[in-house]
């Protein structure tokens, strides 16, 4: 496991997300309304839209470009759409958020 | 609003947690009737509460669940049985539903809460659903038991008809209704010589008036069907097998196959035998419960508020309510359905809806063009559509049906009603107005590139019934929506009249059962002032809504409580959160406000400096007389805004459901035709209205004379100056569906213009549904309504005007300047990673 610290939990808006650039890829770090943290590659499996900019609801985010709905836990599209974006493990220790990006 | 009966969301969640624990066994749910209605209820229930019940399903037929409304295409060899299966055995297995097919339930022991099947199998229940459907009516004629006499109801009947068509020549169908004609058409396609016998002089007399019935008869005759009507059948003649049919006048027609298609009767036998109250059907309440509250019923077997239904759309609405109740979101009510019909005979366009029998106090609007084979009749009562019959041209069926269900007053467009909704201005559809004639590769949805063939295939292969289903599976009609009418037609043509139209009472989104109007009224009445509070009070089904309802709630709260409600930026679409327009590559566009389209060398220089400093890749003049800086990186936005702000610019809100632009022409200051100072008035209007949030974007324009160079008559509100004053026009649109404005009124002074304009905008803010532009809003509520509120009722207008000004006190704060000075800094800055 290679945990990357991405700052305090307070830095993430509830029902929102922020982006962290790791190497050449953007990773979206989400915080749900209940305070859980998830990380997905910031790229919708449909047309590459930035998921970090979407509306977060429950365990889901809606892509701002064409309204695909992606499950934050798995990175998979919900409903009739099929596709998946990579998901990364996260942890919150002492109020700080870290994500596990293999090879980073 | 049904706040009285339901549990709070917390209670539901708490109970769900209890249920999932090992301490409590699941309750037992039994469904009697493995048909479309019952299984739809089960599917709806699984969506809401997948783990609440152990489910057992009994079906009298030995198959899985199939789409009964597609039996006619199977008979006509256009589809196979495999095409119309809805749920296979695997489907039941995957969901751990016990399916007992081919075994009829014969008894309900209500005291011991068990059902008993013919084979002796028993199943206990905590909740029971009866969906026993209907039985075909069999005429009490001598000879009705002869081999070769069939009804038309299920797969077994279709099998008998198909095998008869292989071995025999002559078929007689008794009954000239929808089902009879579809049977006749199918048998004829399979090579039989078919005669339809009908008791009455008009075909499909419950759906058609005599004129349309005659047109239908003629075109079916052209296809080779024969008719004997009015004629009463007296006897079916034969020894080993049916040989002929004898009529009341003593004559006979030869027949090797007789299909009785004279109607259906609710199958309430089991319910009756179990002591449940029944009349024609099983009596149910608005929550789909029988007189025994543990026992629910739905579908063709029930009688609700005196009505029995034989089409699928009402069954689906019932299934939703029933599932809600079983899932203990006990707030849904079924209030009955309006139905429409479409005949599934290839090449015949026929649509009917509502009540068109006429009567003393009704009026009829009729259009008839015999040469083109087109007939339309609309029955109007009290300024509203009561019924419609369309033959030959059914493009506008869905529109008339919508007007009927919503009770839209038609006085404002009565003179053009029969010519249909103007489709001519629609963009992206290459002028297609009807779908039947289109080839499979014709593009229906220009936004997502979806062809007719894709949609039809998805409807049958994936068993789609609703517009939302088609949107989810094909993406057609899910973007700009201009092809919605065509997609609805494809649904109707593929499924016949049974397709599930958008229900009359349409919830805001799947998170709630409430309509936009109910939500807004409740927010005001109950003084709900935050999204969580509104969701709690209105018993939202999801913990924090979805991308559809949250932005709508945010706007409704903002509109209801200006200055009090704290805007929830996480509930705004990204464009409104980042105050720029997201582009396909994730960058943003920046459009500074240029008041009335009038700028200066100094302003242009400032824009040029920003463009160079931030290496803006594209600078474009917009349609709204402004300048668009495209391709700005999100993290640069606050600095770009700071520079623009220092040069005197504010946000142009080009990204928002907000006041966009006020387009002007140069007016009488320069133009030799100008009658008033259109430019100056446009600037005043923009200064007064900028910053206001709306259900959708709003564009204004002021033209200095009727030459209308500012294109004011395709704007949400357009002012056309004339020598004697100012004409106000509303509800125009230059987008997907071009719509010219309606004339609202003429006023004398610039102050009048501003007061009327602001009052109109406030009325739109308060009454339109979120994401509804002014054009469809006005078409829905009627121009007269808007005129009453804005022109006739002067005191009301002034009240609207002052409410608008109050809201403006809080919304005319430049969002760019705020963010240039540090507000929401985290929104724009990326996170930093440290190992």
Topology of this protein?
The complex is a heterodimer of chains A (104) and B (835).
Chain A: E1 3-8, E2 16-22, E3 25-31, E4 37-41, E5 55-57, E6 60-62, E7 69-71, E8 87-93, E9 96-100
Antiparallel strand pairs in A: 1-9, 2-3, 3-4, 4-8, 5-6, 6-7, 8-9
Chain B: H1 9-20, E1 27-32, H2 36-48, E2 53-59, E3 65-66, H3 71-75, H4 81-84, E4 85-87, H5 89-94, E5 98-101, E6 105-109, E7 114-117, E8 122-124, E9 127-130, E10 134-136, E11 149-151, H6 155-167, E12 170-174, H7 178-189, E13 193-197, H8 210-222, E14 226-228, E15 233-238, E16 242-247, E17 252-254, E18 257-260, E19 264-266, H9 269-273, E20 282-284, E21 295-297, E22 302-304, H10 312-326, E23 340-342, E24 350-354, E25 363-369, E26 374-381, E27 384-391, H11 397-406, E28 443-445, E29 450-451, H12 452-461, H13 467-474, H14 484-495, H15 516-525, H16 531-537, H17 549-560, H18 574-578, E30 581-582, E31 588-590, H19 601-613, E32 618-621, E33 627-632, H20 637-646, E34 659-664, H21 678-689, E35 698-703, E36 717-722, E37 725-730, E38 742-747, H22 750-767, H23 774-781, H24 783-792, H25 794-811, H26 815-820, H27 825-828
Parallel strand pairs in B: 1-2, 1-9, 2-5, 9-21, 11-18, 12-13, 12-18, 13-14, 20-22, 34-35, 35-36
Antiparallel strand pairs in B: 3-4, 6-7, 7-8, 10-19, 15-16, 16-17, 23-24, 24-27, 25-26, 26-27, 28-29, 30-31, 31-33, 32-33, 36-37, 37-38
Helix pairs in contact in B: 2-10, 12-14, 15-17, 21-22, 22-24, 22-25
Q: Summarize the amount of helix of chain A as a percent range.
A: under 10%
User: Number of helical runs of chain B?
Assistant: 27
N-to-C CA distance of chain A = 10 Å
Query: What is the H level of CATH, i.e. the homologous superfamily of chain A?
Result: Rieske [2Fe-2S] iron-sulphur domain
Strand order of the largest sheet of chain B: 5-2-1-9-21
If you consult CATH, what is the topology of the largest domain in chain B?
FAD/NAD(P)-binding domain
What is the structural class of chain B? Answer: alpha/beta
Structural class of chain A: mainly beta
> What CATH first level of the largest domain in chain B would be assigned?
Alpha Beta
């Amino acid at each position: 496991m290679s945990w990357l610290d991405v700052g305090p939990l307070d830095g993430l808006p509830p029902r929102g997300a922020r982006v962290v650039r790791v190497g050449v890829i953007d990773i979206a770090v989400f915080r749900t309304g209940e305070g859980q943290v998830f990380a997905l590659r910031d790229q919708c499996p449909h047309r590459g839209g930035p998921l970090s900019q979407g509306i977060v609801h429950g365990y889901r985010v809606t892509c701002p470009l064409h309204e695909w709905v992606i499950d934050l836990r798995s990175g998979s599209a919900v409903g009739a759409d099929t596709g998946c974006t990579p998901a990364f493990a996260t942890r919150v220790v002492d109020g700080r958020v870290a994500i596990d990006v293999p090879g980073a | 609003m049904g706040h009285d009966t339901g549990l709070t969301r917390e209670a539901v969640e708490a109970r769900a947690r209890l249920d999932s624990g090992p301490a409590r066994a699941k309750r037992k749910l039994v469904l009697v009737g493995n048909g479309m209605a019952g299984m739809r209820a089960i599917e709806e229930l699984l969506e809401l509460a997948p783990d609440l019940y152990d489910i057992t399903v009994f079906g009298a037929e030995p198959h899985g669940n199939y789409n009964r409304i597609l039996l006619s295409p199977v008979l006509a060899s256009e589809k196979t049985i495999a095409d119309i299966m809805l749920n296979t055995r695997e489907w039941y297995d995957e969901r751990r539903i016990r399916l007992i097919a081919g075994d009829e339930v014969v008894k309900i022991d209500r005291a011991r809460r068990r059902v008993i099947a013919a084979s002796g199998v028993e199943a206990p229940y905590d909740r029971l659903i009866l969906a026993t459907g209907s039985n075909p009516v069999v005429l009490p004629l001598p000879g009705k038991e002869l081999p070769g006499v069939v009804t038309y109801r299920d797969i077994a009947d279709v099998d008998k008809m198909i095998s008869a068509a292989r071995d025999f020549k002559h078929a007689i169908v008794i009954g000239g209704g929808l089902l009879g004609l579809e049977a006749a058409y199918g048998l004829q396609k399979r090579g039989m010589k078919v005669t339809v016998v009908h008791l009455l002089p008009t075909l499909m007399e419950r759906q058609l008036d005599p004129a349309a019935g005659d047109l239908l008869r003629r075109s079916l005759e052209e296809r080779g069907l024969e008719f004997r009507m009015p004629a009463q059948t007296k006897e079916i003649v034969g020894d080993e097998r049916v040989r002929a049919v004898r009529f009341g006048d003593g004559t006979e027609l030869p027949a090797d196959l007789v299909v009785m298609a004279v109607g259906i009767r609710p199958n309430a036998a089991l319910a009756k035998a179990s002591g449940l109250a029944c009349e024609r059907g099983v009596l149910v309440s608005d929550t789909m419960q029988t007189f025994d509250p543990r026992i629910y019923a739905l579908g063709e077997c029930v009688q609700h508020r005196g009505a029995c239904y034989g089409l699928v759309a009402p069954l689906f609405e019932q299934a939703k309510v029933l599932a809600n109740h079983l899932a203990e979101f006990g707030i849904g009510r079924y209030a009955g359905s309006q139905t429409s019909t479409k005949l599934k005979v290839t090449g015949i366009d026929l649509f009917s809806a509502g009540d068109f029998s006429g009567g003393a106090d009704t009026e009829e609007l009729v259009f008839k063009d015999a040469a083109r084979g087109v007939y339309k009749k609309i029955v109007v009562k009290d300024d509203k559509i009561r019924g419609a019959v369309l033959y030959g041209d059914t493009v506008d069926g869905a529109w008339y049906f919508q007007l009927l269900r919503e009770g839209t007053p038609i006085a404002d467009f009565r003179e053009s009603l029969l010519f249909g909704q103007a489709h001519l201005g629609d963009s992206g559809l290459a002028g297609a107005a009807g779908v039947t004639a289109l080839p499979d590769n014709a593009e229906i949805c220009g936004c997502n590139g979806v062809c007719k063939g894709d949609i039809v295939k998805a409807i049958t292969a994936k068993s789609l019934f609703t517009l939302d289903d088609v949107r989810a599976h094909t993406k057609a009609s899910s973007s700009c929506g201009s092809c919605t009418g065509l997609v609805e037609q494809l649904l109707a043509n593929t499924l016949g009249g049974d397709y599930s139209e958008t229900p009359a009472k349409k919830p805001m989104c799947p998170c709630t059962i409430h309509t936009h109007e109910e939500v807004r009224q409740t927010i005001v009445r109950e003084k709900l002032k935050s999204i969580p509070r509104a969701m709690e009070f209105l018993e939202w089904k999801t913990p924090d809504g979805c991308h559809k309802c949250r932005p709508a709630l945010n706007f409704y709260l903002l509109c209801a409580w200006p200055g009090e409600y704290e805007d929830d930026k996480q509930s705004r679409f990204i464009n409104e959160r980042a105050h720029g327009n997201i582009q396909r590559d994730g960058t943003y566009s920046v459009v500074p406000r240029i008041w009335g389209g009038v700028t200066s060398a100094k302003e242009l220089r400032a824009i040029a400096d920003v463009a160079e400093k931030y290496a803006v890749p594209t600078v474009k003049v917009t349609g709204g007389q402004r300048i668009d800086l495209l391709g700005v990186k999100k993290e640069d936005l606050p600095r770009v805004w700071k520079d623009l702000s220092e040069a005197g610019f504010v946000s142009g809100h080009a990204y928002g459901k907000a006041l966009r632009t006020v387009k002007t022409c140069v007016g009488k200051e320069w133009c030799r035709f100008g009658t008033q100072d259109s430019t100056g008035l446009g600037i005043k209007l923009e200064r007064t209205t900028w910053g206001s949030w709306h259900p959708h974007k709003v564009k204004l324009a002021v033209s200095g004379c009727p030459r209308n160079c500012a294109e004011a008559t395709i704007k949400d509100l357009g002012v056309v100056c004339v020598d004697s004053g100012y004409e106000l026009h509303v509800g125009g649109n230059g987008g997907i569906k071009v719509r010219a404005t309606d004339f609202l009124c003429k006023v004398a002074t610039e102050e009048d213009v501003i007061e009327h304009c602001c009052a109109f905008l406030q009325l739109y803010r308060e009454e339109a549904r979120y994401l509804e532009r002014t054009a469809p809003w006005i078409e829905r509520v009627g121009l007269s309504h808007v005129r009453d509120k804005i022109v006739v009722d002067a005191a009301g207008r002034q009240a609207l005007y002052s409410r608008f000004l109050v809201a403006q006190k809080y919304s005319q704060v430049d969002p760019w300047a705020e963010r240039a000075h540090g507000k929401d800094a985290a929104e724009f800055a990326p996170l930093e990673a440290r190992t």
